[in-house]
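quick one if you have a minute, typing this from the bus. below you get a single protein, a line of residues and a line of whole numbers that encode the local backbone shape. could you go over both lines and see whether the tokens make sense for that sequence. anything you notice is useful, everything is just below.
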Amino acid sequence: MYFGKIKFYGGAMNKTVIPIQNVSPYIRYVNDFYCPAGIAHNERIIFDCEFMFCLGGEGHMRYDTKEYTLRRGDLFYLSPHVSNQFYTAGHDFHAHCIHFDWMVPEEADNFMAQQVYVNRNYSREEMVVINRLNKRPLWDVSGLSLPCFLSGLDCDIMEPLFKDIYHCFCRMDLASRIRERALFMQILSELFVARYTESGIRRGQYHQSTVTDAAEYLKLHYAEPLNVTLLAKRAGLSAKYFGIQFKSITGLAVHEYLLNIRIQHAKSLLLHTSLKVEEVAERVGIEDVFYFTKLFKRHEGITPGRYRKRLAEFV
């Protein structure tokens, strides 16, 4: 596709998936977006992620092959390298937009949104940057399934958050940068509450009660040998069908959901008891201490022993 005079190619779509609790967001740009009635913006792609939260009016988004209408309280989530075009018809439109990465990028992969998205007359040096951005790493999160369009969010909660993060972005002090990230995490928290129950079950799904029951069972019996077949039998469903429904509703496979529970309990035991690492592993249902250590490090980025030692310094 074309953006100004530069041809953009959808970059490599291999994404690094990180658990939602491990995100370290980088807020690149926040703007107060106002579009009068009867305006059509150029078709574009973006190289990071974007939240567009409608504060008022009505606008239309052509996204990939579909079209959506945004009104007050609606949120649009744009992913990198997806063709999109925004336009208005008979109404003005007002929104706050947040450009962000799920993780803080390496310096070589970073860019200024104003330079890339606003400027159309690129210099030769800027064209080099643009071409490099097609290949920048992509991130996705597990544990929070976000569709591109979320309708009818609580405006009393979401509007102040988006307005505050915009005002923080407009200030240059360090305290505002810290608060900016805190507000973004608050937005994610509210999106999670809107989408999921306390058990992490996606709301409004056909098998919500079945999956909720399975999730509660996992929380109570996490130290026992558990698998999809056992849970499916309890629900009266085939293992394959149950596994598909569980992941569709929670955003996680059964083994991933169970591992999250086990790791959380392991962290508590490491912090609040003097149990050896192999004893902690057994307490949470993993008999092989080496396998437990491997899983813990993959999940937390640090070994159980180092986790305990590091936290002990702050207690």
Residues 1-12 have pLDDT under 50 and may be disordered. The first helix runs from residue 113 to 118.
